[in-house]
Specification:
Radius of gyration: 23 Å
Mean pLDDT: 75
Distance between the termini: 22 Å
Strand content: under 5%
Structural class: mainly alpha
Order of helices and strands: HHH
Low-confidence stretches: 8-13
Helix content: over 70%
Length: 111
């Protein structure tokens, strides 16, 4: 008879490190996506400010405004102001976990 224990099997360190690296990449990608999305949402603001110049030369402000909007979008994303990146991460981590569980269940049933 095999004794029942509450100990869980050890997870290999390499798997944990790989999961950590994957989660870091996911975190970064989610924030980059949120920043890009915010940048697109902020684009109308730059067009409105250019229209407010009433025909003045906007060639000097154009690149600076674009860079500024990207910086604002990145700062908003990194501060979790809207939380889109967090929601994306949760959804993808949950999807990854369910995919792993399904793969483990299939490999266990084949034995």
């Amino acid at each position: 008879m095999t004794p029942i224990t509450s100990a869980t099997p050890a997870i290999p360190v390499a798997q944990t490190e790989a999961d950590g690296f994957r989660n870091q990449r996911l975190h970064k990608a989610a924030h980059q996506f949120e920043a890009m999305m915010l940048g697109e949402m902020l684009k109308p603001l730059t067009q409105t400010s250019e229209d407010a110049l009433n025909g003045e030369d906007s060639t000097t402000t154009g690149p600076l405004q674009s860079f500024g909007m990207e910086a604002v979008a990145g700062a908003l994303s990194n501060s979790n102001a809207l939380g889109f990146a967090r929601q994306i991460e949760r959804a993808l981590v949950g999807h990854s976990a369910s995919t792993k569980a399904a793969a483990l269940a299939l490999s266990g049933s084949e034995k």
